[in-house]
Amino acid sequence: MPSEEWLKTLEKKKSLLNAPNDFNEYFSNDKLFGRKLHKLEIGDLKVPTGKLLVCDPLAHLRKEVEPYYVQVTPGEYPITVLVVEVEEDHYRYVAVKVKFTQELAVEYSEALVGSEDLNNLEEGDYFGFGVDAGLATIIDEKTRDEFCYFRNEWEKKNKGANIYDDYFASEFKKSFNENPVFQRDAGDWINFKIPNTDLNIPMIQSGFGDGVYPAYFGFDKDGMPADLVVQFIDLELTFTEE
Question: If pLDDT is split at 50, 70 and 90, which confidence band does 226 have?
Fold first, then answer.
């Protein structure tokens, strides 16, 4: 858990960590800023411990990656990808949402692990997570450990192999073949079941590629987490002239 001092600083800086966009507007409209929006349901996320984290699943997922300090009730929750139609037959993923309750989020605040340096935070800053393999995932802490074990064992048995080229590329291609809508022919998402477990890890193409992206917890009127949104594209910044 974060220290009392950190939580006090967070309270002072809280307004700087609020999302600059209205994700309720994002996910409830069919068109914004002159672009058509679509929603893609990619299955459920199993959350056995309630401790969530977001990262690039191939470039940065290690057992050392810490979960966020805000926890949710363990369970299975739907994953929705928001898709923008950039132009005809050209689609990009705007955001990913995992919905925990039926309550509406009234405030979105950046998801944090509880050890970030908040003292020098200024308007427009965010912490986010790095993407270097063009992919993002939202997973539970237990899933993190199981995936790391699976990957470690696979790499032991496949010396010198590349886990994307030699394993996951075919999984993404299979996803496209089974669900081609809003995917390029090499595949843009999977909801991968980790072998010998009942846990799954979604891997989703990150908007316009590599970079640093923010994640936000949505809190309901009672201050409870209603959803978690990972944002790849700011629609207003991207598709308006101002």
Answer: very high
